[in-house]
Design a protein that fits this description.
This protein is an alpha+beta fold. The protein folds into 3 domains: 19-104, Phosphorylase Kinase, domain 1 (2-Layer Sandwich); 109-312, Transferase(Phosphotransferase) domain 1 (Transferase(Phosphotransferase), domain 1, Orthogonal Bundle); 330-590, Immunoglobulin-like. Helix content is 24%, strand content 21%. The protein has helices spanning 63-78, 111-115, 122-141, 208-224, 234-239, 255-261, 273-277, 311-314, 323-330, 363-370, 388-399, 428-441, 457-466, 561-572, and strands spanning 19-20, 24-32, 36-43, 49-55, 87-93, 98-104, 109-110, 144-145, 154-156, 165-166, 173-174, 406-414, 417-424, 445-451, 474-477, 481-484, 488-494, 499-505, 511-513, 525-530, 537-546, 580-590. A hairpin with a 2-residue loop joins β12 and β13 (417-424).
Length: 592
């Protein structure tokens, strides 16, 4: 990007003294986030210190990211409470042509940094609960659900934990009629702190009770000095939310209220944050609770008094479901990935990869997903491969006419929706797919769009041509975002094919063949390599597996995607059986 003469970029960050709209002046760079950079600044007229969240340069034209920024601004504008950062303005800086959000600057530490030093005493955790619950109640009264309540998003000032503040409403969901968000009702947040509803359980209806559950996990982490073991593989994350976690190590003073907050059934949790804000630890000793569950059925049990309800039995109005089916349906949960622009200059790999500890779905998980059809009319007789309804959904997405640079890949079904990963130059064709998908298949779509650069488009056409909708190639990466150049790119290609190619396509369309760096474990090809670039941007990973040798004949090292994939398509056109191809997208948030 070319800056105006008085605005020079230093390592991608704006220098001190940069002025925004003649209203604010930047004092210091604080941190880089996935969507925007955060600065400390001041208001020019008054000198008041402010926090400024500036949309990242390479995302400035991305409508999805811009919508997320607007969403945070709208959420903050509606909420007025001393536990929530105040909002000052959201606007476009005309010289930089980048939007920014100005808000109150909170001096303090993230709660996550404090917990790195050990657990907190129960009285402090009680004070924290009352403070944060009161703030979130103000948000809920404005029909805004935070959906990412975690230690990273709670700032503790020097004045004490009882004055903590809630930040980052970037993925908040509005419940107002007619309002919408980028993420909608789907998954958002951190796996360690998400509620069962955010993973599709109990109808996937994410409301105020979801924040109550997440806050319960935060409070448990404060008392233990570490999070409860609620993360893991996608299957483990879901299974651990089907029952009340083991709270035997939690301080007895706080155990009853945390047990109430962590009920799997949202109807069995406290009715509102307001009740948590006034909860007294001696309520159990008096033989009553300060609150009643949402359904007002009975006092909420503690782990010692009653086993946790089974989800199929406790969900209000919910019919029993087949556990194996639901586990399979939810394997493919996807969060909105930040779409980005920029230029990759070189992709550096280290020593040959060996089998890594990357947590990816196993073949057992895949078998669970194939066990029965999801939320569609089941076939009349058992089948050994993925049932026909899945094939029909995949075929429709693959064959949808979205233009020359378009690819839509159906993952799994969660919360009754087909999760679709979209790759393309813009959102318009995916809006068209979203409108037609349910009419054509009977299943609504939840589409996350990954924007690619024009030189990368030939990779999409190649993947579309060889995509196997009946037996998709299993290809997983540990992380879809890397924070900085030099971070490890890890993952695995699961295949019994003898011939496997692993290609990386940067945003200039240059292709590097790193197949030699794949591990050789039977049925699984792991990779682990450093990803280096001079500036942030997106990269495509292409996995090709088949019975026929894939020579890449005539493709020079670091050749362009246009040449490489044209030659590959010609070389593999008559292969029998045809190869399987899978695509992944990774975004480097900041360059070196």
């Amino acid at each position: 990007m070319s800056y105006p003469p008085d605005v020079q970029s230093i390592h991608g960050a704006l220098p001190p003294g940069t002025r925004l709209n003649a209203n604010y002046e930047i004092d210091a760079f604080l941190k880089a986030g996935g969507m925007g950079d955060v600065y400390r600044g001041h208001e020019i007229e008054t000198g008041d210190t402010v926090a400024i969240k500036l949309i990242r340069d390479q995302l400035a034209g991305d409508e999805a990211v811009l919508a997320m920024f607007r969403n945070e601004a709208l959420a903050l504008r509606r909420i007025h409470h001393e536990a929530i950062v105040r909002y000052f303005g959201f606007t476009l800086e005309p010289q930089l042509r980048r939007h920014y959000l100005a808000m109150e600057f909170v001096e303090g530490q993230p709660l996550s940094d404090i917990l790195d030093r050990g657990p907190l005493p129960a009285p402090q955790v009680l004070a924290l609960m009352r403070r944060i619950a009161a703030g979130l109640q103000a948000a809920h009264e404005q029909n805004v659900v935070h959906r990412d309540v975690s230690p990273d998003n709670i700032i503790v000032p020097e004045t004490g934990i009882a004055r903590s503040r809630i930040i980052d409403f970037g993925i908040a969901r509005s419940l107002r009629v007619g309002d919408s968000t980028v993420i909608g009702s789907g998954f958002a947040g951190k796996y360690k702190y998400v509620s069962p509803e955010q993973l599709g359980l109990f109808g996937g209806d994410v409301r105020a009770a979801s924040d109550i559950y997440s806050l319960g996990l935060v409070l448990a982490a404060c008392l233990l000095g570490k999070p409860l073991p609620m993360d893991g593989t996608q299957v483990e994350v879901i299974e651990r939310r089907r029952s009340l976690p083991d709270l035997s190590a939690i301080d007895p003073m706080m155990r009853p209220i945390i047990a109430a907050m962590l009920q799997p059934d949202p109807e069995a949790r406290p009715r509102s944050m307001a009740e948590l804000a006034v909860w007294a630890p001696d309520a159990q000793e008096r033989g009553s609770t300060v609150f009643a569950p949402r359904g007002a059925r009975s006092p909420v049990p503690t782990p010692a008094s009653e086993p946790p309800p089974r989800p199929a039995e406790s969900a209000k109005g919910e019919k029993p479901r087949r556990v194996g089916v639901l586990v399979g349906l939810l394997i493919g949960l996807v969060a909105l990935a930040a779409a980005g622009f920029g230029g990759w200059r070189y992709l550096h790999h280290d020593a040959p990869a060996t089998t890594t500890g990357v947590q990816t779905a196993t073949t057992t998980d895949v078998a669970a997903a194939n066990a029965e059809p999801p939320l569609l009319d089941p076939p009349q007789k058992p089948v050994e491969t993925r049932p026909d309804p899945f094939v029909r959904l995949r075929e429709y997405a693959r064959d949808f006419d979205g233009g020359d640079c378009f690819l839509a890949v159906v993952g799994e079904i969660s919360a009754g929706e087909a999760q679709i990963e979209g790759y393309g130059r813009g959102r318009e064709p995916f809006d068209a797919l979203d409108k037609s998908f349910k009419d054509a298949t009977g299943v609504p779509a939840a589409i996350s769009v990954r924007k690619v650069m024009a030189p990368q488009c030939p990779a999409l056409g190649f993947a579309k041509k060889f995509m196997d909708v009946r037996e998709p190639l299993r290809f997983d990466v540990a992380r879809t975002q890397l924070q900085r150049s030099g971070d490890k790119l890890e993952g695995a290609i699961e295949t019994r094919a003898e011939n496997v190619r692993f290609l990386i396509v940067d945003d200039d369309g240059l292709v590097n063949d790193l197949s030699a760096r794949l591990g050789q474990e039977p049925g699984r090809r792991d990779f682990a390599m450093e990803l280096r670039a001079t500036r942030p941007g997106p990269v495509l990973l292409v996995a090709i597996a088949g019975a026929t040798p894939i020579s890449l004949a005539g493709a020079a090292r670091a050749a362009t995607a246009k040449d490489v994939f044209a030659k590959l398509a010609e070389e593999l056109a008559d292969a029998s059986p045809p190869p399987a191809v899978a695509l992944k997208y990774v975004l480097l948030v900041s360059g070196r």
